[in-house]
DNA sequence: CATGAATGAGGCTTCATTCAT
DNA sequence: TATGAATGAAGCCTCATTCAT
């Protein structure tokens, strides 16, 4: 049954988000209401299960819409849109992202699911594309690092409010602060 | 013997840096060339050992010099000095810090060794102090987040070179970029 | 397989009878010719295993026939039958009972397998029932204590012969002595 | 220091009463405020310590006055005095006695501190002596068993009140019941 | 005499995984 | 396809005891 496989993936995701790769196959099996051994029949071993689950969710949640904003002509709008969008996505998937960064930091993940790298690389590409399309000379690497820094600080530092819980006013004020640091520089 | 205790702490530190809290007491014992049981006699349990080891290293490596720079009168110098100093310390203790951030992200650490919080808080205090002493109106929280973001990006993103491996020229160019984002804003 | 579970229970019983709750899970596993871990899969932990095993044997060996004798009309016959029956059962399960009393004395048992209490309570009930059915005024608590005392003395004091090894003549003489203490009193 | 040895014995007694022979040397050392190793220097090993401690307390609490009552001429008084005295001593040393019986039941004690045997034997001797002095024909073994049964039932069965907490009236009523069972028999 | 330091042996328990159906 | 049963390996921790001072 495709059904059962999908159900395992969903349940496993929840468990992995909560506990990372350390989560036990038993916990996953319980959450999925499936015999432990079924996981092994379907995914070979825990690592494969983990990778499958994470890849599947990364595709669904992160790859989509990645480069849409690059087309915007105004750089301020481009930045605003990219920061807002990424902070939204990240804060909505906060626990997943935290877990993935943690596992990455501990070197437990294969390169194919290196989230920080993915974020950084896709930012660099987006910025490059924007620069090219608008004939701008931008230090895309530095911008990407700065943006990533912003995103990471939202994920890792203590927060009063998550980004997606801010009012529109607060959100705009915050975005303005972030954006100005990029624009005046140039 | 203080000697053997110290030796355990040093060895445990190396093991914990490599493997995080997951490291086994056996690994620690092997590295320290000590019977496993000795760890328990001396530290009670694995968690206590971990906390003791981490606290000790945090005190030695991070608390020192924390507020020195606040006294600087020129804000640019203040920022330069604080960024340079923190990036240096962090990149020299890269693996330790990565591990601590990872464990923190997974919620495995007690508040007493919450490194991201410590970094953020001490930055905020330092900036506040600088602002007060020089009669400046600074959004210290925002600055602290921006600075933390810079530090985190250096720790987490893929790097060509570590900060402490940069030439003086590269280092200065980098610092200038970072600093300008703060100054022009105000 | 119900088979293996039953086999574990039987082996565990033998080991627990010999060593009490102190018996190690390893000993049980060896006796049952099963991997140690199997015990935990099946019973959760040592305590649960112990309780399960003991409950099962108590049900099989002690609860049966408990109140049969109460129906007897003649009080002497009632006493004779109850003493004979209980001494038989107890002396046949001597080591089990001794172990349970020992663990109970040390406060190591949950109330559900408190053997002394069970014996005393069921005696009291049986006597009450006999008294009621035959319209007698009996101090059932005192009788139950006296009977329990007899049983305990057989279990705990040094014995030349176990009750179940006595000849019929010896057994009758003994029973007569015990019974007369109850009857003449009233 | 005799002092420290005595202090260890006293503390060890408390711990052993609470936990039996299972009590750890660490617990004993803590209670005695002495280094664990001191126990071994003084007593060789845990078993020796245990035996020493128990022998010492048995001498102090049980051997004294054992045969005093045998001299009484009236058998009823003799029984009353012996039952009252033993129940008093036993209920005052309830936990110690329970522990000793428990360890005895589990076969953990050397014959020299077999408490049930000691009680039974001394009762038999006392009764024999009383019979001899008063020219009576008593089945001393049976009496001793009956008496022991009474004592054991007080130690092991659930109790509303300990013997030493009974009012004088209650105590007398109880003693009368017990005694009559012996006298009318003959 | 007393102790701080250290340990080998062993206990309970959990984990990912295989076997047999 | 799915699972109930079983397990080897390993983890944390405790125990009685010895060593060296």
TrEMBL record, chains A, B, C, D:
Protein species of origin: Aquisalibacillus elongatus
Residues in HTH tetR-type domain copies: 2-61
- Identify the PANTHER family for this entry: HTH-TYPE TRANSCRIPTIONAL REGULATOR PKSA (PTHR30055:SF226), HTH-TYPE TRANSCRIPTIONAL REGULATOR RUTR (PTHR30055)
Protein's name according to its UniProt entry: TetR family transcriptional regulator
What ranges are recorded for DNA binding?
24-43
Which Gene3D superfamilies does this UniProt record tie to the protein? Tetracycline Repressor, domain 2
**Alphabetical list of InterPro entries matching this protein:** Homeodomain-like_sf, HTH-type_TetR-like_transc_reg, HTH_TetR
GO-annotated molecular function: DNA-binding transcription factor activity; transcription cis-regulatory region binding
The alphabetical list of record keywords is:
DNA-binding
